[in-house]
Specification:
Elements lengths: L3 H15 L4 E6 L10 H8 L4 E7 L2 E6 L4 E5 L4 E7 L9 E7 L3 E7 L5 E5 L4 H8 L11 H8 L6 H6 L9 H11 L12 H20 L40 E5 L2 E5 L18 H8 L6
Helix pairs in contact: 1-7, 4-7, 6-7
The structure holds zinc ion.
Length: 300
Amino acid sequence: MPELPEVESVRRQLEPALVGRRLEHVEILDGRLVRPYDPAEVATELQGERVAAVERRGKYLVVRFESGRVLLIHLRMSGSLRHAPHGALQDDPHGRAVVRLDDGSDVAYRDVRRFGTWLLLEPDEAGPYLDARVGVEPLETIFTARHLGDRLARRRAPVKAVLLDQRTLAGMGNIYVDEALWRARIHPLRPAETLDDGELRRLHRGIRAALEHGIARQGSTLRDYALPDGGSGSMQDEFRVYGRDGEPCDRCGTPIAKARVAGRGTWFCPSCQPERPRSTGGPGPVAEPDSLHTGHRRQL
Ligand SMILES: [Zn+2]
């Protein structure tokens, strides 16, 4: 499933192709894409709109029109967008929509699993819609280690589950959460509220580094993800843990382990990411000094 780096890579290619262009003709071939709305009606509404900006919010592509209306595109499991001169794209059994632009090029939406969505919103609707579903953007300056701590406080669920929740942070998914936790040396099952300040700083850095690495490689192509020019990302060649069970950890050589957390396949290094971290000086196990001091072993 495309996550922040994949959607951002798509956005960066689409932006120069779309901004300033008018949607001359829109064909929605699969009603599921726009349900509960009527596909012919949505297509008619989109025709004539001119694109003012192509933005991203979490995993949503946000196409802003000069009219103020907004088209929210969510690729979900397997959606992808292609941009090519009119007629250059071949008939595609998985094609779900085609938009002809006023420069003679086409943007085609394909989706094998058909979970993707296109939602056309009026000017005042997009902000509240997104804010209700998507938390802070992890690559924006407003996102700090302290902010992360606020988001994880009083959350007893495993840190992995909390990070997958789009309201915690925008755009994290199964791949980049695992990669970020490995970078931060934090076990995916740690209850989110138990991370100390040092761990929060490491996780904050790890999240940003994992996402920036993904964007630099134009995302990861595992199954259906493709860039608008037809190219693919290469992040899958540089995963530290994701999908690598049994392979040696890049940091310590221990075989990467696989578990199930929050219902998702989860990869981590059992050595670098211990489930119970050793105390780093804060409150923690003090049995040894105590027993030394009193001269006899504490019964546990
Ligand atoms: Zn390791």
